[in-house]
Amino acid sequence: MLGRLARARSPLDIIWGSKLEEVVQFEETVKDYGSKEIGPLTFSVGRGEIVGLLGPNGSGKSTSIRLMLGLIRPSLGRVMLMGLDPLRHHVKALDKVGYSPELANLQAFMTPSEFLELTGRLVGLGRGLLNEQVTKTLEDVGLSAYENYKIGKLSKGMVQRLSVAQAMMGPPSLLVLDEPMIGIDPAGVVHFRSLFRRFVSDGGTIIMSSHILSEVETLCNSLAIIHSGKLVFRGEIEKFIQTALKSRLIEVELQTFPDDLLVEIQGVPGVTRATRMERGYLVEAASGSDPRSEIAKLVVGSGAGLLSIGYSRGELDEAYIAAIKGSGN
Q1: Are 237 and 52 in contact (CB under 8 A)?
Q2: What residue ranges define each of the domains in the chain, with the CATH number in brackets?
Q3: CB–CB of 240/233 below 8 Å?
Q4: Using an 8 Å Cβ cutoff, are 193 and 167 in contact?
Q5: Interval 184-232: pLDDT, tens
Q6: Cβ(226)–Cβ(209) under 8 Å?
Q7: How many whole angstroms separate alpha carbon 261 and alpha carbon 327?
Q8: How far apart are CA 263 and CA 243, in angstroms?
Q9: Any bridge partners for residue 254, and if so which?
Q10: How many angstroms separate the CA atoms of 212 and 217, rounded?
Q11: What does the pLDDT look like over 278-304, one tens digit per residue?
Q12: N or C: the chain end with fewer CB closer than 10 Å?
């Protein structure tokens, strides 16, 4: 049975940069497997964050999650979950944590409704609240129409939705999600983004391990990157991209193309190159500079009609590859 792990509400909130409450803490944590060592890891996760946990296969992401949930014991250092040692105070530390593992193996003979009812009873929900929450959770993850189907008859994407659903029973205040978008169709991905953002806006925190960097870039507000067992970055996505990339691409979409506008944009401080595209300009800027506002002023002043301006999508992919190469492994 999937673990149902944690749920407590606190009056404290987290504002990035000022730690008002840490829900997860790694303190010089090491897991020694003999042939391989993960750590030492030192970082924390604050309430209200959506953290993308990134790293190549075998880097230590799964070990970090197991340490966090008290499923394995650290060789050195310690891990704190909700201010408690998840090994010594396992039940209490995990009382407000929901966990959705990668490629969940659910009971094929049960229906989604039966499975969530069982999960709800295990986390202590009373009959009245249990029925209400099962109905709401099935609706939240888009499984209401499949509540009486056998899980063994569901598609991979539907099973993944149910895995997330069981993690949200309680409800939790911390969600730990391992590859939550695997097998989910595009419409479902958009729906889950909205669901996760609402969860955080209501006071929750999310730690999401994923290899889908575009999804991490869209949904998360900070990163923890582990490579070869070491923490190589912890902080805001924007800061990581600025640090990892030497230059950044800005896409400027226009209605018209005044003759001198391209030359003027090329003269903006921080801009290293600007070229014409079918629907606008592609501007290369030095990392650490942000000429978007100056470019926007020039476009508006020229009467070209600014449709959109923003950094090129996929920057996290490029920054991640650059950072991993730069780690020397």
Answers
A1: yes
A2: 22-240 (3.40.50.300), 245-326 (3.30.70.980)
A3: yes
A4: no
A5: 889 989 999 999 999 999 999 999 998 889 899 999 999 999 999 999 9
A6: no
A7: 41
A8: 28
A9: 306
A10: 9
A11: 899 999 998 888 899 999 999 999 999
A12: N
